[in-house]
């Protein structure tokens, strides 16, 4: 039955996208349980991929309902550490879809104004992925084994924190009075400044960046010692084709933001 649901949803997502504007059923369909945890994750992964295609047609209420589910699924996955090992490939694919949809949601609806608790929950989830949690440790172990999907998910964690620093709708005290967002309460800025970006958390972020994301391999160190200028130019030209550059660039951007 679940496979049929995915097939129908897929066909609808390509033929009548505007029909999703006031539809709540795609989000409700995420709640349909399977006989096994593996089946549930597989189904959610497929449905989230389809939902991502029509997300921009959802009403704001539907988007908030989806955001609440995404937050719940992050929490559930973090508590099921045994699943990481038993279904590694599935978990990475599922987590990638959660991160992707979460990012798109954040661009479509102002979570900090609609549901501040949910906004804080999203911050905690993405921070955990990128910098500090058992799930982060799992992703780092896969990343060091050249797993591109783990690298992608870690990148989501870095980008989310960088996005908080770059969002002018949050840092309203930095804006000229005439340019301030009239709908902003300033609550997000106060929370980030006083409760989230503490000295301890900033130290943790920088520690992970320096020890995990900006490190060079033995081969790269050898190349740098041989000809540092040539190594730098090759690294710059190759961009994301070289393993690690994807996260290095994101990490350097976050350092600049901090």
Query: Which stretches of 5+ consecutive residues score pLDDT under 50?
Result: none
Helix content: over 70%
Q: Helix- and strand-based class?
A: mainly alpha
The total strand number stands at 0
Mean pLDDT: 82
End-to-end span in angstroms?
49 Å
**In angstroms, what is the radius of gyration?**
20 Å
The largest pleated sheet is described as: none
Strand content: under 5%
Q: Given the C-alpha coordinates, what overall shape results?
A: globular
State the order of secondary-structure elements, H for helix, E for strand. Answer: HHHHHHHHHHHHHHH
Count the DSSP helices: 15
Keywords:
74% helix, 258 residues, 0% strand, mainly alpha, 15 helices
Written account of the structure:
There is one protein chain. The radius of gyration is 20 Å and the shape is globular. The protein is 74% helix and 0% strand. The N and C termini lie far apart (49 Å). α13 crosses α14. The protein is mostly helical. It has a domain at 23-197.
Summarize the structure.
The chain has 258 residues and is mainly α.
Record the SSE blueprint:
Blueprint: H1 2-15, H2 25-29, H3 37-54, H4 60-79, H5 81-86, H6 88-108, H7 111-114, H8 116-130, H9 134-143, H10 148-166, H11 187-196, H12 199-213, H13 218-226, H14 228-238, H15 245-257
Helix pairs in contact: 1-3, 3-6, 4-6, 4-8, 6-10, 8-10, 9-10, 10-15, 13-14
């Amino acid at each position: 039955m679940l496979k049929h649901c995915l097939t129908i949803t897929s066909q609808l997502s390509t033929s009548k996208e505007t029909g999703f504007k006031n539809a709540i059923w795609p989000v409700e369909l995420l709640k349909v349980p399977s006989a096994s945890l593996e089946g549930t994750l597989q189904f959610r992964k497929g449905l989230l991929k389809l939902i991502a295609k029509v997300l921009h047609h959802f009403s704001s209420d539907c988007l908030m309902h989806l955001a609440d589910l995404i937050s719940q699924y992050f929490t559930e996955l973090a508590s099921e550490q045994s699943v990481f090992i038993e279904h590694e490939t599935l978990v990475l694919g599922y987590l990638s879809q959660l991160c992707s949809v979460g990012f798109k949601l954040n661009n479509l609806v102002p979570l900090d104004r609609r549901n501040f608790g949910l906004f804080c929950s999203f911050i905690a989830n993405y921070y955990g992925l990128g910098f500090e949690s058992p799930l982060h440790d799992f992703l780092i172990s896969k990343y060091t084994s050249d797993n591109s999907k783990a690298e992608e998910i870690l990148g989501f964690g870095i980008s989310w924190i960088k996005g908080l620093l770059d969002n002018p709708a949050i840092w309203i005290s930095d804006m000229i009075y005439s340019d301030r967002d009239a709908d902003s309460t300033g609550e997000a800025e106060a929370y980030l400044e006083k409760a989230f970006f503490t000295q301890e958390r900033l130290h943790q972020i920088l520690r992970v960046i320096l020890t995990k994301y900006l490190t060079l391999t033995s081969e790269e160190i050898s190349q740098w010692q041989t000809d540092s200028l040539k190594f730098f130019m090759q690294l710059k030209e190759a961009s994301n084709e070289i393993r690690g550059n994807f996260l290095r660039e994101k990490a350097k951007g976050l350092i600049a933001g901090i």
